[in-house]
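Reopening this ticket.

The earlier resolution said the output was attached, but the attachment link was broken on my side. Pasting everything inline this time so it's all in one place.
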Amino acid sequence: MTKLYQQWVIYKIITVFAIACIFIRPAPARAEQDLYVYVDEQGVHHYTDTPMSAGYIKIPSPSQLNYNKKAEKRYEDIILELSRKSGVRPELIKAVIRVESGFNQKAISAKGARGLMQVMPVHAGPYKIKDPFDPRENITAGAMYLGKLIKRYNGNLNLALAAYNAGPATVDHYDGVPPYKETRKYVQKVLLHYRNYRKTGK
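Inline output:
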């Protein structure tokens, strides 16, 4: 085999390989399928990948659930202590904090709610809260108020959380979870995180 012929064979092999790289591409990875959940007034969870109403919320994928875990761990001892004091499960307190502020102790809303549990000034007074941005004081007010709502609604978390978000007067007026999109999604998000905390601890 002459040297020229060898070079020609090598050239052909390289050409065929280059063409193959252009036309033969790996199949795209299958996209992660979105899953939605709706929590009805009885607390029953309904799951689907094709939501038929605005009441469904998208369940975050693991990549979307990332947040500052260090901030959460920083308040675990306080949450456990105030869970015993208020009678509210620590997983529920954590779920409310996660939805309300994302564990940002300096959070403040346009309506004036402040701190980890987004405590309104009117709810801070009865618990002698001087600094709503102080984690212990804020969680004290939020957990005690939430515990009061849970007792008021005989352990019905849907109603208690709706009242935490929209006020007990609104819940009483509608005799159930108010037909507000924001409130309904709030209740569902908190319950979703609450269930995950109880199941996996995160």
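Reporter confirms the inline version is readable. The longest strand covers residues 36-39. The two ends are 68 Å apart (CA to CA).
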